[in-house]
Design a protein that fits this description.
single chain, TIM Barrel, binds ligand LM2, 2 domains, binds calcium ion, 469 residues, globular, Immunoglobulin-like, alpha/beta, 4-stranded antiparallel sheet
Length: 469
């Protein structure tokens, strides 16, 4: 275990999809820590298949060894990234691909970290796994080993998702290897896992694997949030996995898109009554790498709606919020910016290749707003019956969101103490207590008259040092 700073206490997760390790480290130091993000989610860190032609982003969802030399950098760079994030007070959550290894249809035998393997033969020498460590038929009832019935527990959990070699997670040996992989990361400082394809691993198998995990270097149990696409019922529904940890809230992302394309006044009741999983079990999101490609959620192509949805997510009281920063793509299978050999190159937020949502001034400052509002209930709700809303979080923070094409000028009840507040959507408070953008004055009765421009927001909160001008 390393000597580390303490976690900053925040809970907002920046999902830096397929940023390489050096870029994640720099982001923790320069942006995520200073802005109060509590954690960063990083791409799958294991060595993965390297195809012979183009290098789609999804190569990393086909692990071929549990070594940490990967498409995103070396093991040393991975460990240096974890240390840099910890030194900035930011936890690290890794995307854990544990349901499967590479696709049985893949003929490549080369990888980013130099592992020895052959997918067609179910052979992974560095772990090692051989054909006995994978599900065949039986237990999968289909001779082609595919999933035909997505409501059949045996098929979903013991057949192959997308022809990906399905690990026999019932076996003590496989459980031990997966736990060993996860513990190699925990021992390096990793604080939790986004569990990929968790719906495809039997709950009892996952529980056994999790029971073997070490405590983190910051003295906690690893935070676990599972990828469970909704749509199946009973034992395959998100709720059936909550005994093992939290779940990614897909329904939240879909409904948020619907409201921002409809009327956000409806969000007044947004929560469990909408069919969402319980708040304390929900890792909520505006989008992720799969959903932005499916176009089933808002994406960076949606302009102000995308920004405002993140602002709403950070202001609302539901779940553990994520901010998603990926790369721009024209085609679904595009590679992230990479060198000629497929290794991902440093994130550049200014040449239109990466989306860098985590740095957006309004979104990044809403992380501080979110942290200041912690534990405070929603109060002073206002809406215009259409696409403008406002609310406070107790007497600590207030936001107005205008998702319409016309400016809204209104005298709002903010719940805040009298004073001058920086609109953090467009301004930062300097060490001297001045605001680099516009300010809003709250009077002795807690009221403020302000204009919220079209497709924009105004957000105020009690900060230290206070904003005075
Ligand atoms: C996930 N969650 O459960 C990830 O969020 C998702 O991005 C992954 O799919 C999936 N599960 C497996 O980890 C991605 C991508 C797929 C890709 C797989 C494996 O969306 O298109 O499948 O990663 O790399 C690709 C090919 C597919 C082929 C498969 C196996 O697109 O046609 O299946 O590889 O060779 C025959
Ligand atoms: Ca499985």
């Amino acid at each position: 275990a390393q000597a580390v700073a303490a976690p900053n206490g925040g809970d907002v997760i920046a999902n830096l999809f397929e940023w390489n390790w050096n870029s994640v480290a720099a982001e923790c130091t320069n942006v995520l820590g200073p802005k109060g993000y509590g954690a960063v989610q990083v791409a799958p860190p294991a060595d993965s298949i390297k195809l012979s032609g183009a290098h789609p982003w999804w190569e990393v969802y086909q692990p071929v060894s549990y070594g940490l030399n990967s498409r995103m950098g070396t093991e040393a760079q991975f460990k240096a990234m974890v240390t840099a994030c910890h030194n900035a007070g930011v936890k690290v959550y890794a995307d854990a691909v544990i349901n499967h290894t590479a696709g049985v249809n893949q003929t490549s035998t080369s990888s980013y970290g130099g592992a020895t393997f052959n997918p067609v033969g179910y052979s992974y020498a560095n772990i090692p796994y051989s054909s006995a460590d994978f599900h065949g038929s039986p237990p999968c009832p289909n001779s082609n080993l595919g999933i035909n019935d997505w409501n059949n527990v045996t098929q979903v959990q013991e057949c192959q998702l997308l022809s990906l070699s399905d690990l026999n997670t019932e076996s003590d040996y496989v459980r031990g290897k997966i736990a060993g992989y996860l513990n190699s990361m925990v021992d390096a400082g990793v604080d939790g896992f986004r569990v990929d394809a968790a719906k495809h691993v039997a709950q009892a198998d996952m529980a056994n694997i999790l029971s073997r995990l070490h405590s983190t270097v910051w003295g906690a149990r690893p935070y676990v949030y599972q990828e469970i696409f909704p749509g199946s019922s009973g034992q395959l529904a998100p709720a059936a996995f909550e005994g093992n940890g939290s779940v990614l809230e897909f329904t939240y992302a879909y409904k948020l898109k619907d409201q921002f394309n409809g009327s956000i006044a409806n969000l007044k009741t947004f929560g469990a009554s909408w069919g969402l999983e319980p708040s304390d079990k929900s890792a909520v999101m505006v989008t992720n790498h799969d959903l932005e490609r499916d176009r089933t959620t808002l994406t960076y192509n949606d302009g102000s709606k995308y920004q405002l949805a993140h602002i709403f997510e950070l202001a609302w009281t539901y779940g553990t919020p994520q901010v998603y920063s990926g790369f721009r793509f024209a085609n679904k299978d595009d590679s992230p910016p990479a060198d000629a050999n497929g290794y991902v190159t440093d994130t550049n937020c200014s040449n239109n290749t990466w989306t860098c949502t985590d740095r957006d001034q309004g979104i990044a400052n809403m992380v501080g707003w979110h942290n200041a509002a912690r534990g405070q209930s929603v109060a002073n709700w206002w809406d215009n019956g259409g696409n403008a809303i406002a609310f406070s979080r107790g007497d600590k923070a207030w936001v107005a969101i205008n998702n319409s094409a016309t400016a809204v000028t209104q005298t709002f009840t903010t719940g805040l103490a009298a004073g001058t507040y920086c609109n953090v959507i467009h301004g930062d408070v300097t060490a001297a207590g001045t605001c680099t953008g516009g300010t809003v004055t709250v009077d002795a009765t807690g009221k403020a008259t302000t204009t919220v421009p079209a497709g924009d927001a105004v957000a105020l909160y009690t900060q230290a040092p206070p904003c005075t001008a």
